[in-house]
Amino acid sequence: MKIGVLALQGAVAEHVKSLEKAGAEEVVTVKRRRDLEGLDGIVLPGGESTTIGKLMREYDLLEPIREMGQRGVPLFGTCAGLILLARRIHGQEDVHLGLMDVLVDRNSFGRQRESFEADLEIQGLEGGPYRSVFIRAPHIMEVGTGVDVLCKFQDRIVAARQGNLLGASFHPELTDDIRFHRYFLEMVRESRCIAK
Ligand code: GLN
User: Fold this and answer.
1) Does the model's ipTM exceed the 0.90 cut?
2) Is the Cβ atom of 168 under 6 angstroms away from ligand 1?
3) Which residues are recorded as binding L-glutamine (predicted)?
4) Nearest CA to 36 among 67, 9, 64, 57?
5) In testing the pocket of ligand 1, which one of 135, 141, 169 has its CB within 8 Å of the most ligand atoms?
6) Are strands 165-168 and 75-78 parallel, antiparallel or unpaired?
7) How much distance in Å is there from the Cα of 194 to the middle of ligand 1?
8) What is the arithmetic mean of pLDDT over 132-136?
9) DSSP 3-state assignment of 193?
10) CATH superfamily of 2-195
11) Structural domain boundaries in the chain
């Protein structure tokens, strides 16, 4: 199993570490098109979605990653990565990958609480609450019919899955809890079984 972490900006090294700890056999960073070869799954980290989206276009990564997502390769977007996945962004015309049938709102948890942590129950993660780090986090305002809501916080959707697409408002790579990454690797294993 070979997983790529988009490495144009943001919390890249932390994702690589978490994926390795969660049992991924090979983890590579993705900076250019050829790095996508042979990947079974891709993580889109947090950072600043406008910047990452711009760099993805510049480095010719947007189209190939979109195609991979359409083909069923599992994609995991965290924070800005969730915004990259979204089909609609509140108050904004332009979207990036536009794959996941969700409407996201950026920076939606208020200024004075730009950064905070919360213990959340997440569907599919067993073993009690999951410590979640929110940094200028988006939330999901609306989901389409094919989207499963995995977690809500303050009545807002903060984690969801649509088939091979997984998105979280928070940063699972910033704690030692690797259950979310394990969940993603399980999605990758399942998709490889289906592909064979
Ligand atoms: N606020 C950022 C954006 O809109 C996301 C923040 C993050 O990834 N920590 O892109």
Assistant:
1) yes
2) no
3) 47-49, 106, 135-136
4) 64
5) 135
6) parallel
7) 33
8) 95
9) helix
10) Class I glutamine amidotransferase (GATase) domain (3.40.50.880)
11) 2-195
**Host H or E run for residue 87:** strand 86-89
The structure tokens listed for 53 are 């989206």
Q: How far apart are CA 39 and CA 26, in angstroms?
A: 10
Active site residues: 79, 171, 173
Distance CA 26, CA 37 (A): 13
Which of the four pLDDT bands, split at 50, 70 and 90, describes residue 192?
A: confident
CB 87, CB 66: distance < 8 Å? no
**Considering Cα of 147, then 102, then 81, then 46, what sign does the dihedral take?**
negative
Beta carbon of 115 within 6 Å of any ligand 1 atom: no
Name the residue of 8, 12, 48, 116 to mutate for ligand 1: max ligand atoms within 8 A of Cβ.
48
Q: What pTM, to 2 d.p., does this model score?
A: 0.96
CA of 134 to the centre of ligand 1 (A): 10
| Averaged pLDDT score across all residues of the chain | 96
Do the beta carbons of residue 104 and residue 88 sit within 8 Å? yes
Radius of gyration of the chain (CA): 15
Q: Is the CB of 135 under 6 A from ligand 1?
A: yes
Rounded distance from Cα 193 to ligand 1 centre (Å): 33
